[in-house]
Amino acid sequence: TFCQTQAKAFPLPLPSHFSLLHAARSASYLYALSSVPILLSPQIAATIMMLLIAIAMLVVSAPSARAFNNIQTSRSNFHPSKVPYPFHSSVLFNSSPTDSASPASVNTKPKKRRAPKKVKPTARFVAISSLANAAASTYESCSSDGAGAQVNAGSFATRLLEQDTYYQSLEPRDRSFARLLVATVERRLGQIDKVLKCCIEKYPPKKGKHSHIIQATLRIGVAQLLFLQTPPFAANKETVQVLRMYPNNPPVPEPMIKFVNGVLRKLSRPSSADNNETEEEEAELVGQVLLREKTSPRDNIAPWLLKRWRKDWGEEKTNLMCKEIMPPDDSLATSRIDLSTKYSLGHVSGADGNEELQSLMSNLGEDSILLPQGSIRVGLSLKGDVKSWPEYDDGTWWVQDASSTLPALVLTNALLDKYPPEELLDTHVVDMCSAPGGKTSQLLCAGFGRVTAIEASPRRSRRLVENLSRLGLIDKCEIVVEEGQNWMPGDQHVHGILVDVPCSATGTGARRPDVLRRGGDIKELLETQEMLATHCADNILDAGGIMVYATCSMLKAESENQVKKLIEKGTVKTMPIQGHEVPGFEDAIDDNGWLRVLPGNLEGDLSSTDGFFVARLVRK
User: Fold this and answer.
1) Which of 357, 382, 452, 572 has the CA that lies 20 to 30 A from 335?
2) Using 50, 70 and 90 to split pLDDT, how confident is the model at 486?
């Protein structure tokens, strides 16, 4: 009777977990029902109930001593009618819930979860996020600058960075720093990971919820310490702080954060405790010693690729290529951006356009230079977003590496020599694998009557349309989104075709270092190249028509060997490239009359260009 009618409330700070409280409450009620009303007085029964609940709490939930002390309540201060019980007897005795009401003095509302802190983006935050989000993904590019090759997602971290809303909200200076961080990690990834392996017993981290963010943070920290000369205090503190602000669920555990902090602090310590350097000379860091003694710039290039280069070009040319693509010190790297213009062809052919080129160069900066084949190399004085540069909105120029202009240049020269000016309007030229549109723009500026651009990727074809629209050339071009090996011209005559086949893109390693770490299985690429080249020669090109086969690969298997196989089939023969057609690149013409550009192997400013191969053929 006592338990059913009077025990409606209890003056104890009970556990918040319902199952534990229910267990303790049920045990005390059962004991009271079975024994207390018969043997003991109500006050003694209440005391026993208090002790039973306290014991149940200690055994089941192991509370602290403070929780146990809070349970102590004097017999004389307790009366069941004074303090309402927060749990109804109807739970145990199946009585109506209206028989007992919860008191207003006890707060039974569930605790609200603390709202996550708003993330204030920093350059380091967005750089680490892009590397971490990209770490386990793959992508497939769709042109000669990497088309068809499956690669690790770290290779397109820059693309993710540009799409990040946090990145877009940064100040221009912070955006530049974020891009620099990602680019440095991608360029020096082999050396960075080798240094980390010297400090960490098990590296890379095991796969888990936070493995990618931990690895990305370590890499960004090492890049700052060893390659960007960031002060150690700033590199360590600001980089580690990203782990605390990273919006992950669950958050990065504190032991992991301390681990990252410990690794970076170890690398940023002076290499010797008793060094005698003067105040002007800073002590060499532990990380710098490891970088010098344990790593080499060639660690950033896949071993299979180095082996293939040595086989194809010999040790001397390979050394020059590596020195240009991956210099020992980033301060020795040549920062270059080449621009093609609507006047470049006129400069090479001797026609009008030199005055316009000189005027454009003066607008782009006094340190800009004119390359022999008509490109403009922008100087260091011109900074900021490319879209903000002079005459960008006017559509006067587009970004295109100097060696990348050669395929369209040799095709244009051959067609201009073959057809008189009055017949150019009837000339039809096809550009295979045309995105992003640099070579297509060259052909359109040459004055051919009809230019068809074939692109297999819908995404890249959209970029092609955007670029041609800005240049004011979109109305002169027919764009077809289709696999090149499936496209047929129908009743149309094709007088010239440029086939820039999908390849490993190893020639672009100076600008895109991720291509230097790809796997060595290029069998599928070789099959695609042969299929596409054969289809263009046999099924698209007119008799007597001119075909240019091009790759930005520095592997003979994708370039020279493919052309040899194509010639052996008997459909085409070589039309040798002449030195006057490619000013500045005369020394790159081999004995076959083909053009082979290797970075670091030419003289002057053209030593710093992408690797490229160009062969000009004519249909029999």
Assistant:
1) 357
2) very high
Helices (H), 253-405: 254-267, 286-294, 303-325, 344-349, 354-364
Cα(63)–Cα(158) distance, integer angstroms: 51
Other CB atoms within 10 A of residue 296 CB: 15
Token pair in block for residue 38: 């018969």
Angle at 85 between CA 84 and CA 90, to 5 degrees: 120
Mean pLDDT of the chain: 82
Show Cβ contacts of residue 13 under 8 Å, excluding neighbours closer than 6 positions: 67, 70, 71
Residues 283/272, Cβ–Cβ less than 8 Å? yes
Please, is 259 exposed, middle or buried when counting C-beta atoms within 10 Å of its C-beta (0-12, 13-18, 19+)? middle
Are 148 and 140 contacting, i.e. CB atoms less than 8 angstroms apart? yes
State the pLDDT confidence band at 279, using cuts at 50, 70 and 90: very low
Contact 468, 455 (CB under 8 A): no
The residue type of 526 is: L
Cα–Cα distance for residue pair 340/359, rounded to 1 Å: 14
In this structure, the chain runs to a length of 620
The residue assigned the tokens 């690790």 is: 152
pLDDT category, 201, cuts 50, 70, 90? confident
What residues contact 93, with CB distance under 8 A and at least 6 apart? 4
- Amino acid making up residue 186: E
- CA-closest candidate to residue 400, choices 376, 422, 379, 382: 376
